[in-house]
Amino acid sequence: MDQSPFSRRVYFMPKNIITPGRRLIQISYNFKELKSETGGMLLEKIEIINTLKEDNVVAAGCTEPVAVGLAAAAAYEQVEGTLIKVEVWTDPNIYKNGLGVVIPGTQKAGLNLAAALGSLIGQTDKNLEIFSDVKYDFLNKAQKLIEQDKVIVNPLDKKSPLYVEAIVSTDKGTGKAIIKESHDNITYLECNGKPVYKKDINTAKSKDQKINYSEFNIAEFIELVESIDLKKIQFLNEGIQLNMKIAEYGLNKSPGFGVGSKISNLIANQKLPSDLSNKIKAWTAAACDARMSGVNLPVMSCSGSGNQGIMTTIPLAITASELDCTHDQLLKARAIAIILTNYIKHHIGNLSAICGGAVAASIGASAGIAYLLKGSTDQIVAVIDNIIANNSGVVCDGAKPSCAIKLMTAADLSYQTALLSVNGLHISCGNGIIVGKTEKTVQNLGQLSREGMEKTDETIFKIMF
């Protein structure tokens, strides 16, 4: 039953998209070399489908507690047996983002709980869905371990890229696991002091042959999207289904702060206009309400974040539905949103003082909407400069239920900026950190994040803890 005030053409729901028991669909496709108008090989043999496929990861709950749980599970699997102690160390941003968000099916928050549950559940094959079905027995045992001071989670003093290290002691020995750079990237396993697995990150990167964002040409990428064989990106349908489903739950059940359902009610009571902008805000916020409050429904993530996945899915799906766009157009818009979000994240960092959902994913979403509005390549590129000129300073103060109001604002910004960009707005060189070339502006944003806001991140951490 749809209780929202705008039920017409809610979203695309093609059948037979989700492959049972196989969430991360393995699809690879090589594009031939494409030359720029100047003859340069700016995009050389880009495996764009590889990048989209690797990013197409389902997550149950916020990915920071999930990463802690996954590391603890991997450490436990090396020895198994009866748990004695669980010790975890994380980078400051994992710690910041993981403490305030509810773990699915538990109605409780905390990294200690995530570590305890992960070591009890095991099952690393579930990947970022490790908390998809938390049994009461596991929850009860986890709480007892915490009460007995057998679970310790500490932040590392030094700021580092995404990092989680877990050591689990049982009556059969000690297991160790390390996750680096992305939330599900297990790079090291150890059993009773002996290494059993070590992943060379640099070698792995060279073999992946994904997009090289350091040499990325935005305009050429957007034009490349037009040549995508749509059969090769049908797996992007799953994210539309999953993320719209959790948004619908948020609208109907009003979890967390109920930001999305409150907007929906204001529309129903004619306190807000029933226009596309407000519909985008309501559905996007509702999905975040549900996710951040621990509703036991999965989401499709983007660049390792469920909220970024929500941002790069829902505003596009609502726009496509309202504008009667084809499903093929929606899939291409999603491809643009995902890749550009990853591009921005490459520069600002996977976890940083800048809010990824409000900045990186809003750029991706706005570019995707501009594509649906039939914007030109130059107009879609303009979206990036326009959003950076507007909200580059939005900070991340941890993952928590109030993230819904940030996503509400970001979703509105994405739509409004797309409209303005398609109608000729392009903030020009000399306005703050905006320079003549958009790629350089993105580099400036990265410098702002990595250098200028390092102290900001430390201050946020100090205030919170």
From TrEMBL:
GO terms for molecular function: L-cysteine desulfhydrase activity. Pfam families: SDH_alpha. It comes from the Bacteria. GO terms for biological process: L-cysteine catabolic process to pyruvate. InterPro entries: Ser_deHydtase-like_asu, UPF0597. Residues 207-461 form the Serine dehydratase-like alpha subunit domain. Belongs to the UPF0597 family. This is UPF0597 protein CDO51_09230. It comes from Natranaerobius trueperi.
